[in-house]
Amino acid sequence: MSSALDHKNATTPAPDAGARGAVASLLRMRELPVLIALALLVLITYLINPLFLTAQGVKDLLLNATIIMILAVGQTLLIITRNIDLSVGSMLGLVAFGTGSLFSAMPDVPIIAVFVIGMAFGALLGAVNGALVTLAKVPALVITLGTLYVYRGLNNAWAGGKQYFAGDRPEEFGALSVNTFLGFPVITLLAIVVVIAVAIYMSGTRPGRDLYAIGSDPDAATAFGIKVSKRVFLAFLANGALAGLAGVLYASRFNSVGATTGTGMELTVVAAAVVGGVAIFGGSGSVTGAALGAVLLTTITSSLTALRVDKFWQQAIVGVLILTAIIIDRVASLRTAKKLRISEARNV
Amino acid sequence: MSETTSTTSTAPAPVADNTKPLASEPKGRTGAARILMGRDAVTIYALVAFLIYAAIAIPRFASPVTTGFLLLDVIPVLLIAMPMTLIIITGEIDLSVASTAGLTSALMGVLWAGGTDIWLALAISLLAGIAAGMFNGFLIAVLGLPSLAVTIGTLALFRGLALVIIGDNAVANFPKALTAFFTSKIGGTGIPTVMIGVVVVMVFFGVLLHFTPFGRGLYAMGYSKEAASFVGINVARSKFWLYVGSGAVSALAGIYWTLRYTSARSDNASGLELAVIAAVLLGGVSIFGGKGSIPGVIAGVLLIGTLNYALRLARVSDVVLITVTGLLLILSVVAPSIGSAIRQWRHTRRVRRSFTRKAT
Q1: Total-model pTM
Q2: H and E: helices and strands count for chain B
């Protein structure tokens, strides 16, 4: 319906409408305000405290964003289909501890194998979520709240009071989050590759578009012949695999992994997606936006430190940011609805 | 729909005998069966069964000491679960409750440490909770923003404000008389004195939900917001007051937490929101809205509380306990789906069989 209307509006005006339309759609892009906010934040912090953008400063910014970025990408796949996964923090914790145990049991295991095993483990955990949600037809919020506790309990039982430290892991594995390539830490490059790959998948392939259709209207998607359960299950699986990847990277980045690794991360991840313009009721938003949201959320913490703002204000500011993002989305959707109403009235 | 299928076949299509078998089809329960077989009744049976089992099988379980510690531990969840039930029945959610409790606790600590009269400090803290609820209510009911997203935002905001107020300090020197009152018991029963106040809150929300037009309207809203506003329910105003109530009760829970543990810190009650929601859902409230009851929720809260307590008495490691909460929650929502799948399968089989009988 709306695409037909857009098409009509685009063809009727002067021939240069194409270029103007492109600019307009660029301005309407939901990622733009996030990008502008991020740029302003970095610029202002830099002007006040030039040390913020030293090579080490940039590296820290990127490293801090990496893990939340990957988790936000996975979460976006689900939120777009009107689902959610609250168990990501627990999945990350299990995989991170699993990585530590793997290295202590087999010190010579190749690093690539660790990544494969970690992602497979995560995918398995995600598949449990997906199977419960799609087979029992129970809302994802409830199921993943349950698995949040179950996975955390498993992690507690497995780890007990044990922790693995950086010394327990091979040097090359830890080096992944120390070494840089073209100024980017290796694990951040990995995250960027993930974002680009998933973004292309979501915007350019049939299954990717199906996810949007499912989120816009599940009944219509079923009527259209989309295998809703299968797609949602695979989205949970993919989210689990990404949480697994994040878990492996966590083990590389941080000094210690134990029973409480990743606790409370789920809400930060959902917040990153919301700040990045992913509508909580599904059907709209993009992976790139969510990744930018993650970068914005983590950068704010660093720049408040650089600006010597009292560290206690950080969380309150994050809260205000989330609320602002929701209000911007609401205003934008009201304006779109109004515009559609007017153009529909003209067509009659 | 049915006419088109029957006209396509030339021969008279076999029709299921629609007099006898359909009469025995399951239909909505009425009267006593509805109360005794309902989803919330199942939670209550589970609670009673477990209490009996624990009293017999676990040494030292059946004693006033148990009652005391058990109730003292579940009171914050029990309190917050009341407004949460009403909110989830309308199809919304409030994730900011634990942060509101933390904010109240921090405020109370700072006011008391700053020399304010304790009763004035309590009153201001309660008002702060109400203000926090009004802020949520304004964003959700007036501006029409999605509650899940808004309360994730205010979860961070309120916890952040708690940090701003008290930093990483802790205030502990509350008046002895007051903190002693909060852990005191009624006679030899082991029931904490504060339970009287908690029961008042439970009765208030129970009556509000089950016996007033406002409460019945909440169920209508949970089924369909449009239909509810057509029958004259002011959806926005109802929602607004629910969030105010949620803020006020969260503040009470924050005050309780502070005086029970004699400590005002910014991270008090953190993570409690998920425990509350788990208990409410276990008590038979549908996350889609429109279904649930206060007695069921109370049973849900107590069931999780007793299970944890009993497992702790049985020397099950503390950290494994949360797995039980998670499994219970999953089981409680998956079991009805399995049940309805079996009923559906039996129904299909019966209809098929009546077709084959006609054909032969």
Answers
A1: 0.80
A2: 16, 0
